[in-house]
Amino acid sequence: MSSTINPLANPKGVKTLCELCQKPAKLQCTNCRVTYYCNPDHQQTDWTSIHEKVCPLLVSIHSPPPLHTLQADRERHHRETLKKQEQLIEIAHLEAQKWVSKKSFHHAIPAALLFLRWAMRLYGSHPVKLVPAYLLLAQANIGLDSMSQAREYLTKAEWAVMNTPDCNPTVHHQLHRSLGRLHAATGKYSSALFHFSNDVYYASEVFGLDSIVTFGGYFLMAEVFLKQNKPDVTRSLYTEVACFWHTHLCKLMEGISQSGIQAEDCFGDAQCVEVDQMLRCILEFEEQYQKPRSDQSALLVHSLAMLWLLCNNYTKALEYGKKAEVLIQGSSEQNSMRESIQNLLHYAEKHLQ
Fold first, then answer.
1. How far, in Å, CA of 291 to CA of 115, rounded?
2. What is the number of other CB atoms lying within 10 angstroms of the CB of residue 28?
3. Closest to 181 (Cα-Cα) out of 208, 145, 230
4. Confidence band (pLDDT; 50, 70, 90) for 174?
5. Could you please report the per-residue DSSP string of 94-135?
6. SS3 26
7. Would you say 189 and 153 are in contact if contact means Cβ atoms under 8 Å apart?
8. DSSP 231-300
């Protein structure tokens, strides 16, 4: 990371604003020379979040076309710049999603802001294309307990969706999920369940009833029922989610052993963290329930072992696999799961040698 206070960066009458807070800024990135900060902390946060990955791209985007070129050359330069802007938006989008999945909300904000800023430049006449950025900013602010800011972003997202009659069901699903999270965080559980129900409906329209996305909605509904002190309903939904993930992970394992699918093709880092948090949450609930079920705990631990093996973390896969091997001894699923667990342990041990 490179920075300096450049006296020539602020010509008289021209104001530069901080990339993060939009306050007057004099601290300039000396690599791209187009990004400013009001203090070193903001620069460091932005660098870690997103700027390190896009700094060279910003230089290229802001490079003017050569002087005295033909019209065809200028048009080609314009097309190439548009492609680079789209690439920048995609990088910022993915990085913001990654930080949100890891619950590193402080780092999610700069990436999501960059995503929104460049989406506005490129898609300003199509507000619905800004919705994914609004939703990421809302999620990050919910995570930081900044509910008023989250509401502001969600209001903008709702307005964009309402004014787009043919809006994609995927956007509806994402909007309802974010609204559900906001209401759940502020204790409005009935409203949260309403939005999560709509989330599940739209997700099933796009991805099907038996999909990772749809069952993510069921998990969020279960968390609301738990907050409402309805453990039996919570347990029922948690059981459905746990069984879905166990079946899904078993199929992925079969794909690796039979079809040659690479483990790294199954999960990205952010998704691995998100699924791990979900399964561990269900496992903790099951272990603390008044009548814990050893077979359900074994299923969840086996799922965690498979997840981490698919994410190439063989140490964690071995740890959970050995725990599953112990739990299965008292489980009614002993015969059907034992072989799978033993194969997993052999696979993990082989890669750790």
1. 47
2. 22
3. 145
4. very high
5. HHHHHHHHTT-HHHHHHHHHHHHHHHHHHHTT-GGGGHHHHH
6. coil
7. no
8. HHHHHHHHHHHHHHHHHHHHHHHHHHHHH---GGGT--HHHHHHHHHHHHHHHHHHHHSSS--HHHHHHH
Angle of helix 71-101 versus helix 105-123 axis, rounded to 10? 150
Question: What distance, in Å, lies between the first and last C-alpha atoms of the chain?
Answer: 38
CB-neighbour burial class of residue 63 (10 A; exposed 0-12, middle 13-18, buried 19+): exposed
Report DSSP state, residue 25: -
- Sheet of strand 3-5: strand arrangement: 3-5, 27-29, 36-37
Lowest-confidence region among 152-161, 203-212, 322-331? 322-331
Cα 245 from Cα 233, distance rounded (Å): 19
Q: Residue type at 297?
A: S
pLDDT tens digits, 207-266: 999 999 999 999 999 999 999 999 999 999 999 999 999 999 998 888 776 655 555 566
Residues 6+ apart with CB under 8 A from 64: none
- Domain extents for the chain? 1-63, 76-167, 172-229, 245-353
CA-closest candidate to residue 145, choices 96, 182, 175 = 182
CA dihedral 183, 272, 45, 21 (to 10 degrees): -30
Fold observed for domain 76-167:
1.25.40
Give the pLDDT confidence score for residue 74 in this predicted structure: 82
Partner residues linked to 27 by β-bridges: 5, 37
DSSP 23: S
Question: Rounded to an integer, what distance in angstroms lies between the CA atom of residue 185 and that of residue 1?
Answer: 36
